[in-house]
User: What shape does this take?
Amino acid sequence: MRRKLVAGNWKMHGSLAENEALLSGLLAGMGNVKAGVAVCVPFPYLSQVQAKLNGSAIAWGAQNMSQQAKGAFTGEVSASMLKDFGCAYVIVGHSERRAIYGESDALVAEKFAAAQAAGLTPILCVGETLEEREGGITESVVARQMDAVINKCGVAALAKAVVAYEPVWAIGTGKTASPEQAQAVHAFIRAKVRAQDAGVAEGLIIQYGGSMKAANAVELLGQPDIDGGLIGGAALVAEDFLAICRAA
Ligand code: PEP
Assistant: This one.
């Protein structure tokens, strides 16, 4: 049985004072949470989060990283730097990075490989746009995004990774995929991995992301192939995030 994992993606939100209050609220409410929990925070706050969460049941990570190990890459942050701050996870291939910063499937695969090489667990985001869904190509888009990583790193690399299915049209829009829509894509992803390695497929955590909140979490997380959530907006309010963690 896979243990569910709920991860918060704070995006470019927060301040030292706001984070302090949010993290204190989360720590105080973790008592009856059985799922794995993590927060993925902006780089400048990793030190704060490390100091606050060290020794707690909440893991932490970043939202992006460089594919390069070190060198003259002004403004970039390497995987080993994230390890220095105790990160367990790093999100790679979030749709905002793909769409706004032009990250290609190939670049995402390089970041995935660099994360694993440094001992981080990548949370690989995949998902289709509204146009792609309406065009009936959801599965081929998700397959292409998965294949970029599988072809570069091998299917076994997914044993030490998390996949987040995030339909782009549901992120930050308040529109959630129905449990049936989400389950169908999650099952597709697992079947695709199973075709290459059944053991990896059974162990693979596939999170759903896209306007998940307390009100829809129970139904989404009740689907057989939905193993947790990647949470944006609702991760910024302790009680909202904790409600999803408890649902998981
Ligand atoms: C996300 O940023 O990954 C996300 C799922 O955002 P939201 O929950 O706000 O839709």
Q: What stands out?
A: The radius of gyration is 17 Å. Residues 9, 11, 166, 171-172, 209-212, 230-234 surround phosphoenolpyruvate (CB under 6 Å). The longest strand covers residues 121-126.
